[in-house]
Amino acid sequence: MEPSAGISVVIIAYNESNNIGRCIDSVIGIANEVLVVDSFSTDDTPTIARDKGARVIQHTFEGHIQQKNWAKDQAAFDWVLSLDADESLSTELQEQLTLAIANGLTFGKVKGYTFSRLNHLAGQPIRGCGWYPDTKLRLWDRRCGCWSGRNPHDKFVLEKGYSLGSISGDILHFTYTDLTAVKQQALKFGKIGGQALAHEFTNHPGYFIQRQGLGFYLLFKLLTAGFARFIRNYLLNGGWKFGSNGLLICFWQSVEVSYKYGFALFGKASNK
């Protein structure tokens, strides 16, 4: 990337009036453009974003992956820094990004950069429980990849032949105001993930396994995947270091996984 090239910061949002200002403030001096794609918020999110200098576009939400792919195509520049509205850049990441941009960012086939993401509970950083370093590919050349994954867990994927770099510093993530928010998101994401999985199997019955064995596969995952997630995050990823908060964070993460497979097994596929 040439030093003179621009960067669009692209943010998808819905009812994020408590977060959007902090997010935009953290990219001042880095972004040549801040684009907020809002899903018809009923609060002051669009107004706050415009007051901060962002360009705001309204677009109906059709899924995390679909929304982010649509949003990147609306950016003014090919290099995109993608953030969620409840995220912001740490001071270290701001400084390192500024330095990287001044030095030209990329050479040859490096077309994307990863950062660590530091998740917070009630304003406190959690460096464990599978929540850290939570590496994310968030700065990339949109001509060289697209958003993929399975809703709601999206990821940007570069095309073959391109390389990744990394930049030190953290994306700060402020989704969880309390443990109730952790529970609510686990159940919400578990249902969305189950719907996406059921729809995937319905339309592509041979995607993972033969249709004949689908029920056995989902039942096996229902009985084992959540427990495995808990053991990994609580014992191996240091959840035990965070007392009762760590225990409940890891518990609700395991519930999300189990709920996803349970919904796919017993629920109905949905396109929503």
Protein architecture, described:
By secondary structure, the protein is α/β, with parallel strands linked by helices. The chain has two domains: 7-176, Spore Coat Polysaccharide Biosynthesis Protein SpsA, Chain A; 179-266. Helices cover 39% and strands 26% of the residues. The chain is built from seven helices and eleven strands. The protein has helices spanning 20-25, 45-51, 64-73, 91-102, 179-203, 214-236, 243-266, and strands at residues 7-13, 33-38, 55-58, 79-84, 87-89, 110-121, 124-125, 136-141, 145-150, 153-158, 163-176. The strands form two sheets. Strands 1, 2, 3, 4, 5, 6, 7, 8 and 11 form a nine-stranded mixed beta sheet that branches. The chain has a two-stranded antiparallel ribbon with strand order 9-10. Strand 9 and strand 10 (153-158) form a beta hairpin. The longest helix has 25 residues, at 179-203. The radius of gyration is 19 Å and the shape is globular. 39% of the residues are buried. The model has no long low-confidence stretch (mean pLDDT 91).
In short:
This protein is α/β, with parallel strands linked by helices.
Count the beta strands. 11
Q: Give helix % range.
A: 25-40%
Question: How many helices does DSSP assign?
Answer: 7
Based on the coordinates given, report the CATH architecture of the largest domain.
Answer: Alpha-Beta Complex
Shape: globular
CATH class of the largest domain: Alpha Beta
Termini Cα gap: 37 Å
Order of helices and strands: EHEHEHEEHEEEEEEHHH
Strand content: 25-35%
**Sheet having the most strands:** 9 strands, mixed
Stretches with pLDDT under 50, minimum 5 residues: none
